[in-house]
Amino acid sequence: MPPVAPAPAHRTAETVVTVLGTDGRPLVDADVTVAQRRHDLAFGCTGFDFVALANGEAGGGPDSTFGGAPAEQAADLAELWLDLFDTATLPFYWRGFEPEPGRPDTARLRAAARWFDERGVRVKGHPLMWHTLAPRWLLDRPTDEVERLQRARITREVGDLAGLVDTWDAINEVVIMPVFTAEENAISRLAWEKGRLHVIRLAFETARAANPRATLLLNDFDMSTAYECLVEAVLEAGIQVDGLGLQSHMHQGWWGEEKTHRVLERFSRFGLPLHFTETTLVSGELMPREIVDLNDYRVASWPSTPEGEARQAEELARHCTLLAEHPAVRSMTYWGLADEGAWLGAPAGLVRADGTPKPAYHAMRDLVRGAWWYAPTTLRTDGSGRVVVSGWRGDYEVRAGDQVAPFVVGGAAATARLSGELVRAGSVGLG
């Protein structure tokens, strides 16, 4: 792994924390322990593997509605997941979420979101509108009814999950949406007949009406100028977008520093936060470069190899470092913890099919919970009950004996009042 660069100045802060006792008075000349709980920069992964676990079900696995690892691996995977990531993406693919009209899987997804929230994890929903995996029962509906049902679906999901899921991919892969031909679907028809801007406005304005506090992303895999032109048109049309989602499924090899820098500069010019929503790097043989649509590459077996795992670890560390160095990046999400059940059957996970972590898992953890983490540190308050904490921006806690209090390292002074139990990290958007 390459040497770790110094922490970027925009990611760190110094905060003066006044520690108050349970009586509300400054805790003077006392030893306290300060520890980080969560980064401000979101380090995420899909949470598909844990929907069944959160619901106390024996099911799950690659053949379940949402994919993921086998149920027998879920508990061990959850321990690995929570030891690295702080932001989960949950699946709201309409076809699987509502296989029959009027029977959405709301209760199970709410339970999964609550499971993460109780563990201090931010939760994002993916996606509210997408042509792929649109319900087949929409096919025979007229376009105006498809639009009405799509609006109702967005209103329902965003409203029902508000407070637990406050960040959403409002609409996914709109560049290709109206001309998508791999599978007949009603959403592509809607986009073709009414245009990209119409469906984008539909998604964003409907979601925002359902939850004005939500952080709503425009998400795409197309890093060409077509996406840039679409973003320009969206902003010129006055549609409020909270962030740009940039997919980076690198099954054909890491983008490298030059392309990554180029993508960052091209999309940061819009002045919107950048969310790297879907990142993958394979630990086996690379997909041939001549493949245009990654979905077209199907092989009987795609094993992880020692050489591939070493390459994946080095490249993931370099990729994470590049993203952390750029001030526009708000989040980075790895698309799938485990190889088992991975998209296209690729060895793109950070954990092998047998449940053991790959070098890439350790490489990322060495950054996120190592070099970029404020380990528990004993400090002594001064005569006014203050300590100075310097570290990566994010959520922290201070402890004195069995008393604990949260605070934020973000530059501004903070006050932390000790109590018997720690208030969990809030479910906040990633804007």
Automatic annotation (TrEMBL):
It holds the Pfam family Glyco_hydro_10. Residues 71-367 form the GH10 domain. The keyword Signal applies. It is an enzyme of class 3 (hydrolase). InterPro entries: GH, GH10, GH10_dom. Its EC number is 3.2.1.8. Keywords: Carbohydrate metabolism, Glycosidase, Hydrolase, Polysaccharide degradation, Signal, Xylan degradation. Belongs to the glycosyl hydrolase 10 (cellulase F) family. This is Beta-xylanase.
